[in-house]
From TrEMBL:
Gene from which this protein is expressed: argH
EC nos: 4.3.2.1
Name the UniProt record assigns to this protein: Argininosuccinate lyase
Example of a GO cellular component annotation carried by this entry: cytosol
Enzyme type, top EC level: lyase
Species of provenance: Aphanothece sacrum FPU1
Keyword Cytoplasm in record: yes
Pathway: Amino-acid biosynthesis; L-arginine biosynthesis; L-arginine from L-ornithine and carbamoyl phosphate: step 3/3
Example GO biological process: L-arginine biosynthetic process via ornithine
InterPro entries on file: Arg_succ_lyase_C, Argininosuccinate_lyase, Fumarase/histidase_N, Fumarate_lyase_CS, Fumarate_lyase_fam, Fumarate_lyase_N, L-Aspartase-like
Amino acid sequence: IQQKTWSDRFEGSLHPAIVQFNASIGFDIELIEYDLTGSIAHAKMLAHTGIIAPEEAQQLVTGLEQIRQEYRQGQFTPGIDQEDVHFAVERRLTELVGDVGKKLHTARSRNDQVGTDIRLYLREQIKDIRTQLREFQGVLLNHSQTHVETLIPGYTHLQRAQPISLAHHLLAYFQMAQRDWERLGEIYARTNISPLGCGALAGTTFPIDRHYSAELLGFGGVYGNSLDGVSDRDFAIEFLNAASLIMVHLSRLSEEMILWSSHEFSFISLTDSCATGSSIMPQKKNPDVPELVRGKAGRVFGHLQGMLVLMKGLPLAYNKDLQEDKEAIFDGVKTVKGCLEAMTILLGEGIKFRQERLAQAVAEDFSNATDVADYLAARGVPFREAYNLVGKVVKTSTAAGKLLKDLTLEEWQQLHPKFESDIYEAIAPKQVVAARNSYGGTGFEQIRQAIARAIAQIEQT
Ligand code: ARG
């Protein structure tokens, strides 16, 4: 049944296409649990301040809890004629508890109501995502502990640069996730502020207690300016910014997983639990999971951009444009959660490091050339001079099809009298990595300390 929405000022009814166009119930039903929780706190506040009677508040709370049960059992499915979740709940409440239901909206507007709902929703999601980040960090840490002394080529410009510990590489992603976790903690605090009681824009004539309802809802504070309270979406933009950075990090890791699983790199193999085949090429094993994560990064960046543009021209205070915040936030949340889950599974059981191939990779190139220059520099040869000399050696060796380790001691000493037989030890891949013992470097001693620090970080709450 089409129910009357607006005051008696309205005589005609909305064009059916405009009903459809205006409605948000199709997506804001996602907020229902938070809408009910917010309304319960509001009802209790109304009784606490004597605006309604305690028995009336009790009836409202009972009715709202009943709607929660109906919703959870799949029995509350409001249609498009309800416009949005707020109207749908208020109408159902009045059906259930009678005229007292019409008192719920005293001293409240949908503007402060929807702001309350979206903050309650988002703070919950932020908690979940932080938990997921911890799980993701846990898998990175596990691999790191196993692979302190597993070497892998380190790259700059995607050209072999210097060999590093595989743990060092993975711990770089651990630290990105750590910053994501910390950032979301800061955003949680700014999301967790109550706009409830800001009214439509200017506050209310009723003697409400905003701090009381805020406390019931677990908010850390209340907005001090009602115009700001109903029209602020900074927290949503901050969240989508943090979500975008998480996606940047996951996407970079995905790109590496895709490269590493290619025949050309062959640093990892994909297990059957996370790889997919081809419908035509029987030999294929495709890294669909990291490819999808890399692809989904784009939509989260899009939501961030969308929200910035949505906000930039809005005059104070509430404007219906703000209804457009929801799908951006919901999809951003779902995408980040899905990607974190998939990447945690991929890293946990979807890949195997090909250790022989990695060992071979670091032994077959000139990525120890810096160490030869360092060797001479440590023996008094100015670094730039040593660097030029080694450049020449790389050139002649490449032409001769040789690696540095293949040069005889005589050849080394012809190049420079400072070379001695310990040059071979100095350019062996393990030693090359171990020697980078500066703080935060890849040396094994540093990695062990970095792992200890990572364990302490992951235990922070
Ligand atoms: N569905 C609306 C939204 O999502 C609720 C607030 C509507 N307020 C109003 N004054 N039209 O923003």
